[in-house]
Amino acid sequence: MIQIDGVSHRIGGAPILHDISTRLPQGKLTALIGPNGAGKSTLLRLVGRLEPLQAGRITVAGHDVATTPTDRLARVMAILGQQTAIASRLRLSELVAFGRWPHHKGRPGSVDRAKVTEALDAFALTPLAGRFLDEVSGGQAQRAHIAMAVAQDTDWLLLDEPLNNLDMAHARALMRRLRAMVDGGRSVGMVVHEINYAAAWADHVIAMKNGRVVAQGPAGSVLTEDLLSDLYDTPIQIGEHRGRPLVLHHC
Amino acid sequence: MDSGFAGAGLDPRPRLSRDAAMLGGMALLLAAVAALWMFQGLGQGNRSFLLGLRGAKLAALVTVAVAGGVSTILFQTVAANRVLTPSIMGFDALYVLLQSGLVVALGGAGFVGLPPAAKFTAEVAAMTALAALLFGTLLLKGARDLPKMILTGVILGVLFRSVSGFLGRVLDPNEFAVVQSVSFASFNRVDVTLLPWAVAATALAVAAAWRMSAILDVLALGRDPAVSLGLRHRAAVLAVLTLVAVLVSVSTALVGPVAFFGLILAGLAHGLMRTSRHALLLPAAGLSGAILLVGGQWLFERLLSQAATLSVVVEFAGGLFFLFLLLKGRIR
Ligand SMILES: Nc1ncnc2c1ncn2[C@@H]1O[C@H](COP(=O)(O)OP(=O)(O)OP(=O)(O)O)[C@@H](O)[C@H]1O
Ligand SMILES: [Mg+2]
């Protein structure tokens, strides 16, 4: 479980998060939803210790992110931020291989190589493995970044808008993969904008707005017409498809 | 050490051996150039004296080259871009300022009279502390804005140089001459008394950098990925900046400040190696630097009898390369 207690955050004096307390349940796929600027990325970055915690307490599977050694945390959770620009010139295979660093610290063994091969394969990157990051499309690069986080092989996987740049087929393949990981006992937390992916795949939903959590619970109880209309300040209708809510917002 | 390779259907070996062969070739070339430097035009009389003289200069040139190449690669890795160098950020200007400050505090005679080893050690220590403090703050305090970084560096450099200049002005002419002699690059005038210390310090720093090469690979990904992979980012950045400060101090103490030399070496290393692995990049930068400097000095000193010109040519070429990088937008 990821437990978030009384977390507030300011950037340059401006309050961004207001006294947030919530949790991401163990063994579930949790979707973080909300309008632009709600504070989803900030909260996820705090959980992933990419930003130092200013107030409150966050534990990931019992590890306090403020006090647990960072290399220990790297074997408990993998986090992929919203901005994925990489400074060095790397082949896709090299990028994905970095996901194994927390385990081998520079001396990869056969297990590490196998995990990298598996991750490349899972995201249909094997044919592109030898290409440089700046020689592939945006979606292919995004898949390589996700594959790197998956290769890290942690109990917790945190992804900020992983569906960015992915076409329909790859978006669905990713959700299927995450679903399978969760069914295998892992836990996933992800920021999602395309609400129907949350509706179709998430177990648990946390809705944020203006730096606060406005609703949380099982997907069915959060994804309602009233709540979503309020959340996004826009009228939203919900139908049903194969027993899951289908959000109609394109018209 | 093999962190970069996946072994996923594609065999890493051909690439590795290509880069390794390149390094081997460069080492051979360096050996050839060094032999040329040592033995070409060696007359009959006084051979051992001449060999000693040439040997000392060879050691100095190689030390400066390796320090310049390795420090630039290290700095570019922590700054996450290919345009900045320690010199552009004012590292060597800071060292010159430190020396000018010493001249003022002790007087020209006192400065010259200091035991070189003690002076050198103290300078390197002070430089390391100052640089880690200053550039550590700059790099860690969210300076992800590259134009702002370059500007800050240029301003710092100008500031350090003008303070040195001001100190020079308030001195009497003799002391000013001492300051002047330390503020301009010359591969021709090498301070031989420092040589053993400089070689030792460089060897230690380069060995430390080499041992860190797997960590440097992670650091080069940028802060967020490095942190999520569990690297203690802050500590790693400070460690790297310390090594940079030692290397720049050594090189500046030996031949004075060289602004753009390191930029050429980093460019060459990245161009010659088909990989971002520091285990290969670091030796590539050091070797190409040594080949350039020893070969260049041989050409200018022995063939063209223009010993003083090499630094000008190197700076000119480096400056052009800097402009090229900026114009090409290869700013990351
Ligand atoms: N570096 C920064 N300086 C100032 N304000 C910032 C900074 N980063 C984020 N903010 C502000 O913090 C708030 C929350 O940002 P955050 O990135 O967490 O939003 P988000 O919910 O992830 O939005 P999006 O859906 O657009 O990604 C926003 O109002 C944003 O303007
Ligand atoms: Mg965001």
Automatic annotation (TrEMBL), chain A:
<keyword id="KW-0406">Ion transport</keyword>
<protein>
    <submittedName>
        <fullName>ABC transporter ATP-binding protein</fullName>
    </submittedName>
</protein>
<keyword id="KW-0813">Transport</keyword>
<keyword id="KW-1003">Cell membrane</keyword>
<dbReference type="InterPro" id="IPR003439">
    <property type="entry name" value="ABC_transporter-like_ATP-bd"/>
</dbReference>
<dbReference type="InterPro" id="IPR003593">
    <property type="entry name" value="AAA+_ATPase"/>
</dbReference>
<keyword id="KW-0410">Iron transport</keyword>
<dbReference type="InterPro" id="IPR051535">
    <property type="entry name" value="Siderophore_ABC-ATPase"/>
</dbReference>
<dbReference type="GO" id="GO:0005524">
    <property type="term" value="F:ATP binding"/>
</dbReference>
<dbReference type="Pfam" id="PF00005">
    <property type="entry name" value="ABC_tran"/>
</dbReference>
<keyword id="KW-0547">Nucleotide-binding</keyword>
<feature type="domain" description="ABC transporter">
    <location>
        <begin position="2"/>
        <end position="235"/>
    </location>
</feature>
<keyword id="KW-0067">ATP-binding</keyword>
<keyword id="KW-0472">Membrane</keyword>
<keyword id="KW-0408">Iron</keyword>
<dbReference type="InterPro" id="IPR027417">
    <property type="entry name" value="P-loop_NTPase"/>
</dbReference>
